[in-house]
Amino acid sequence: MIPRIKNILYATDLSKNSAYAFRYAINSAQKHDAKIHIIHAIETLSSATEGLLLAYLDPGELERIKQEKRNTLIEKIRNRLNEFARRELAEDPDTLKKIASILVTFGDPAEEILCKADELNADVVIMGTHGKGIIRHSFLGSVSERVLHRIRKPVYIIPLPEGETDITLGEI
Fold first, then answer.
1. Domain, as residue range, for 108
2. Is the dihedral of CA 164, 168, 171, 172 positive or negative?
3. What pLDDT does 149 receive?
4. Beta-carbon neighbour count of residue 148 at 10 Å?
5. Is residue 151 in a domain?
6. What CATH number should be reported for the domain holding residue 134?
7. 104-107 contacts at long range (C-beta below 8 A, 24 or more positions apart)
8. In this structure, is residue 54 part of a structural domain?
9. Residue 23 in domain
């Protein structure tokens, strides 16, 4: 039996590469009448950085500042992704209804993508690559590579077209 695609997890790092991959997510959603869940994961502060900050702030103050900044950042990124989707889909506003959720999470990006793919019962994950060069790590990007090695679902890794370094997309 051919698997049916109902839920697509589109992972973005807010780069032009990932903006290009958004078109593939939209195309797949249209072809399969699927929903898209957009995720952007933000790396949390390292313990070393947090230790440095604790030299100047008490733990309660640091936690309050972190929470305040997280909430502000989540709102800004969600708004930015909403605007990006509206611009990209200006000619087909009905397709906006296919976007089921916009998730902004904090943690290791690969781990967050893996967890949300399971949580949302995603049938496929779509993400862009850095396409920077010869070394595999640089070609795929560490997040894409780590997701590929650990996930048990199909993953579409979308590179920029050859020769494209400045694709004309509405910037995320």
1. 7-158
2. negative
3. 92
4. 14
5. yes
6. 3.40.50.620
7. 104/39, 104/40, 104/41, 104/42, 104/73, 104/74, 104/77, 104/78, 105/39, 105/40, 105/41, 105/42, 106/41, 106/42, 106/43, 106/44, 106/70, 107/41, 107/42, 107/43, 107/44
8. yes
9. yes
Beta-sheet pairing, 124-128 with 99-106? unpaired
Q: How do strand 35-42 and strand 7-11 relate by DSSP bridges?
A: parallel
pLDDT reported for residue 142: 86
* pLDDT at 137 (0 to 100): 44
Residues, the chain: 172
- What average pLDDT values come out for the chain (172 residues) when binned by 10 residues? 92 85 95 97 87 88 90 94 91 92 96 98 92 47 89 92 58 60
pLDDT at residue 168, rounded to an integer: 46
**Residue that the structure tokens 């020769």 belong to:** 163
Indicate whether 170 belongs to any domain: no
- Per-residue burial over 58-87, b = 16 or more CB atoms within 10 Å of its CB, e = otherwise: eeeeeeeebeeeeeeebeebbebbeebbee
Q: What total of structural domains would you count in the chain?
A: 1
Q: Is the pTM of this model over 0.90?
A: no
